[in-house]
Amino acid sequence: MKLTPRSLGITAAVITVLIWSSFIVVARASAAHQLLPLDIGFLRIVGAGCVLLPWGFWLMRTQRQSGAQVGSFMGLSPLPFRITALTGLFGSMLYAMLAYSGFFYAPAAHASVLMPGSLPFWTSLLAVVVLHDQITRARALGLACIVIGDLLVGGASLLKAFDGGEVWKGDLLFMSAAFCWACYSVLVRRHALDPVRATIAITAFSCAIFVPIYGVAAFAGWVPSHLGSAPVAEMVFQALFQGVGSVVISGITFNVMIRHFGPVRSTMITALVPGLSALGAVVFLNEPMSTSLLVGLTLVTCGILFGVRMPKTALKP
Fold this sequence. Notes:
mainly alpha; 13 helices
């Protein structure tokens, strides 16, 4: 049975929200184990590459057989070099490095607010500049709520920096990771990229650039790494969940969502992610829920809901 475009977009949104919510809880829990942030990023890319690189090779088989030059990065990416480099830099390598590093400083509840919360803000700004989108009144109100909510959470951490706290570092890393993902989502919309090919391309970029460099540096002892001492089961789990789940599955569903709803509304559809992941952090990680965090979470969620609401004129047949 073939899904309608609307049903496909809604299905992709539900899958994306569930995986993103689980990603925040699992990534924070991983900080208590042996692997370091870049170790997890390395396994994420390797796990995704095991699925996506053979997939990309199969997709380009017809062009390759005809003798045509296809893709870039030694034929690993189905997209041109420049687009692969840009989307891979923001949507894979930098995003993973910043996000996983943030979980080693700040709790999952902060990530629940600051990553999906600041994502619509960054995406809206970039969409105005790059795509010449217009910000409606409802969306402006939503973005204002998001900014205030982020300040309630991140601002409290910044104030504690004077007392020697390090949570603010994680907060800044989370917001920087959201900015990188916003850059990626706008690039996907601007170039009308195919969901599968875009996900393969960003993985191919990281496999060609980050994996060999970090692998050699970790093996030689030039950078701190626990890849040689961490349990095999833990590394396999990270490769499967972070790579196959967070990259392959949610990467494709997120791109499908972008093509159906657009970059700004897609990032705002993730309204359930802050609440679900924060609740998961309280239940599974025993994290406290402070008043400022609860208010910030509420404001961010309301802001996303305001932004995702379509204007009345758009609802008319």
